[in-house]
Amino acid sequence: MINRRIVLASRPTGVPVPDNFRIEEVELPALEDGQVLLENRVFAIDPAVRGMLDDVKSYLPPVPLDGLIPTMVLGRVVQSRNPDFREGDYGRAFIGWETHSVIAPGSVGFENVRVADDLPLTAYMGACGWSGITAYVGLKRYGEMRAGDEVLVSAAAGAVGSVAGQVARLSGCRVVGTVGSPEKARHIVEDLGFDGAIDYRAAADLDAEIQRHFPNGIDLYFDNVGGVTLDTVLPRMKAFGRIPVCGMIANYNHQADPYRVRNLWQVLVNRITMRGFLAYEAADMLHEAEEALANWVRSGQLTATENVATGLDATPDAFIRLMSGETTGKTLVRLDDRVSTLRDWKAPAHV
């Protein structure tokens, strides 16, 4: 069987361009004991992958030249030599941009996904998948979120931030988000129910704008961006505030020259708990998070936003648009138009 896949043709400088990627065809290997063959249906396009395209140390190894571009995949099992998977099941794992994937127990995020008939398949790669799970465990475990917290979420119109803000609101918190355009500011307030929005690009004084929204300080800052925003937030944290660090997207296109944080000493001044986390390390919360997120989506209490491209060939462009800041919600690629999306499904009106 032939597998079509996208590999790294050259290392990006700044925002990736189409010439950084190349499509190739390879023969699929025979399965070994414990392995599962997926016919991929959906890719989750994530900004953290940009950091892996540079030849620098990260929490996952850099992609070698001519190496497969990594991503979380969701696919239908077409062959299995693993007793926990049967043909027709859906498997999810961190593999790559390819039409078919061989996954094994050692694969990151290796999971047999319980796909419900009443939710679109793309939801399991967005709000009900690892983006939603990341938001949920980041707030609850690493952010120690409590009802009544004053919460700031950066990249609040993005895949993780849009869910994090809604989960915090559903948990009894007051939530403000930072975004990069007036349209995104309107979206998170009017469509997602945030209590306020800060357009950091339009703010003449970001510190003054944050202070205006949080005159008494911030209890919990869910950080997706790092950079100037983190630097500005640190002095505005309350004593014993918490900062779960989910991402550093402000640095992903410029890892060789990252922003120098000047206010790190505020961690000591305000006795802040600041912790980076990887959601898949909270495996004991996985089913709790999946169940809560799916029920909120079903009931209409949580609005899952996504932008979907179709076809393997469309994947690099979807990634480039994400890294250029052009997208809202979860960026996804469905391998063909048989895959249902949120456009095809409508949650019941929430009262």
Polypeptide structure, described:
The protein is of the alpha/beta class and 351 residues long. Helix content is 25%, strand content 25%. It is built from ten helices and 15 strands. Helix 6 links the parallel strand 11 (218-222) and strand 12 (237-245). Helix 2 crosses helix 3. The model has no long low-confidence stretch (mean pLDDT 92).
Gist of the model:
This protein is α/β, with parallel strands linked by helices and about 350 residues long. The chain contains 10 helices and 15 strands.
| Residues in helix, % | 10-25%
Query: Approximately how much beta-strand content do the residues carry?
Result: 15-25%
Q: Which of globular, elongated, flat, extended, rod-shaped describes the shape?
A: globular
Q: What is the mean pLDDT?
A: 92
Assembly classification: single chain
* SS content category: alpha/beta
How many angstroms does the end-to-end distance come to? 50 Å
Cα Rg: 20 Å
Order of helices and strands: EEEHEEEEHEHEHEHEHEHHEHEHE
What is the number of strand segments? Answer: 15
- Weakly predicted, low-confidence segments: none
Largest sheet report: 7 strands, mixed
Helix count, per DSSP? 10
